[in-house]
Design goal:
With 438 residues, the protein is mainly beta. The chain has a single domain, classed as Beta Barrel (Porin). The chain is 7% helix and 53% strand. The protein has three helices and 25 strands. It has a 17-stranded antiparallel beta sheet, with helices on one face. The longest helix is centred in the first third of the chain and has 14 residues. The N and C termini lie close together (7 Å). The N terminus is likely disordered.
Length: 438
């Protein structure tokens, strides 16, 4: 679900030996600027903008897709092999998801959420989110509701960006199509080794865009499978400023393009896509970035998510989330698994911990209160793993815990506005978003 992290302190840096090399095209001049792995990575922003601002309602690259409970339809002997009991349970779950206050949905519902943002990277501003949840066909009583949404980003340091996304369910929930586009012009500072604004820094501007598309087909036994495509391109330049004695090249230009094709396999039995109270979600994605299809880097990214939900008592739900990420090949540092993104786990500024492998698991208790309000409490444990001959060590455990408040934006679909505070091992964060964390 979309969220905006509000870091509790300036973006921390990892003590990395990596460098950013700025070179003018067709020039012999080079400027090597040693940097640590910043908690904000601009090249990852286009992907994050798609899924974190609007993609939470429409799509997610991380495997937390909001695809809803689907109903099996007898089309062939392959599907008819399911028992009558399974089919009845499937239809009941689909009816529950498309029903509000005991009546079936017969129209759409708007969700409007102006989300505040305060970040050392971007400055202070607002992220307006607008979404429309609706049945694609009123005669189709099986498919979950479709979603189209838009979001923007406006801050006091001149940053401007927007994103558009949509996820459609059709043909009696046989097909699911997702598409998203983001474009923006970002201003931020890239810090060198060390921490704090007293260190040497580069004031950068990045303009770019990103596209995501996915098409899934139902296979049977509630499984969906289909291809996906990711493309992004951006140009980084140095903003005019007085850097004192810091050496600069006569011209600066770094162009980065990432292109990937992959697939998603998903099985979803949740009772409600926006506020699950029962059922499970199993999601696996793989993305293959290759220079042969126009990507600057060649590497592979795999992500696995498993969620489960239980009703404890009236208005009380216990939710579980397990997540694993693996990166192969030769990725750029921002192409590795990044701890703290997509609520894996809250309490960590994204980018403080990143490596070839990540594992994370968490529990969340949810209590719905009168007058559309609610509260949650959560805790989890995870870690990053270097891979190769470097095994995972207990000292690398990264625990997290916290709580938050909820306000119901849409009574019809039970879509909540979320505000969470979380404490990690060495940092804490505030996050504001639309929908549950998982």
């Amino acid at each position: 679900m979309p969220q905006v992290l509000l870091p509790s302190r300036p973006d921390p840096l990892l003590q990395s030996k990596e460098s950013v090399v700025l070179a003018a095209p067709h020039s012999k001049h080079r400027f090597e600027f040693p940097v640590a792995r910043s908690s904000f990575n601009s090249l990852r922003f286009w992907k994050a903008l798609l899924c974190s601002l609007v993609g939470g309602l429409c799509c997610s690259f991380s495997g937390t897709n909001v695809a809803a409970q689907e109903t099996e339809i007898s089309e062939s002997s392959y599907f008819r092999s399911q028992t009558a009991e399974d089919q009845a349970q499937d239809r009941n779950a689909s009816a529950q998801q498309n029903t509000s206050a005991g009546s079936k949905q017969d129209g759409g519902s708007f969700v409007i959420a102006p989300l505040p943002i305060s970040s050392p990277a971007f400055g202070s501003g607002i992220v307006p989110v607008l979404a429309y949840i609706f049945p694609l066909s009123r005669s189709d009583k099986t498919s979950p509701s479709s979603v189209v949404s838009a979001a923007g980003l406006v801050t006091d340091n001149g940053t401007r960006a927007f994103a558009l996304a949509g996820q459609l369910y059709f043909d009696e929930n046989t097909y699911r199509a997702t598409a998203a586009f983001a474009r923006g012009n970002l201003n931020y500072n890239l810090y060198g080794l060390g921490a704090g604004t007293s260190q040497t820094q580069l004031p950068l501007n990045q303009a770019g865009q990103a596209v995501f598309a996915e098409f899934l087909r139902r296979l049977g036994w509630k499984f969906f499978l289909g291809p996906r495509f990711i493309w992004g391109s951006s140009l980084i330049t140095l903003r005019p400023t007085d850097l004192g004695s810091t050496p600069l090249p006569p011209d600066v230009g770094i162009h980065t393009a990432l292109t990937a094709i992959g697939f998603r396999l998903q099985r979803d039995t949740r009772s409600n896509r926006f506020y699950p109270t029962s059922g499970t979600l199993l999601d696996f994605t793989s993305d293959f970035f290759s220079q042969g299809i126009g990507s600057k880097y060649s590497f592979q990214s795999y992500k696995f998510t498993f969620n489960s939900y239980w009703i404890l008592a009236k208005q009380q739900v216990l939710a579980y989330n397990g997540f694993a990420c693996l990166t192969g090949g030769q990725p750029p540092f921002y192409g590795n698994c990044i701890y703290g993104t997509n609520s894996e786990l809250r309490g960590y500024v994204a980018g403080c911990y990143l490596d070839r492998y990540i594992v994370a698991t968490q529990l969340e208790y949810r209590l719905a209160l009168p007058k559309r309000f609610g509260v949650v409490a959560f805790g989890g444990l995870g870690g990053v793993i270097p891979g190769g001959k470097q095994p995972f060590r207990t000292k690398n455990f990264l625990p997290s815990g916290g709580g938050g408040a909820r306000f119901e934006l849409s009574k019809k679909y039970h879509v909540n506005l979320r505000a969470d505070f979380a404490q990690g091992k060495d940092s804490h964060t505030w996050s504001v978003g639309v929908g549950e964390a998982f």
